[in-house]
Amino acid sequence: MEGIKVTPAYSNQVAMQMSVFDIRFAFANRNGGNQAESVNPDEVVAEIIMSPQHAKAFLLALTQNIRDYESLFGVINIEPNKEFLSELQKANRTEV
Description:
By secondary structure, this protein is α+β, with helices and mostly antiparallel strands. It is built from 2 helices and 3 strands.
């Protein structure tokens, strides 16, 4: 991407919308609070719009990259450690 300045952005939440013509991803960076809540427009760091065909090709590429990552580094656990989380909550050291 020579000549194009791209600003990196971190995202820990994504909202998706779709129509017959495109799929939209609104990437947000939420600090604290409930991750299950809808994305606040003020937290959006990037919005990506793709054709359904491009989105599916992206899904296939992402799936393969996740498989490769897990082969190298182990399975990515998306479930919290419930015992540790309970201890943190009892000590008032985290929000859920």
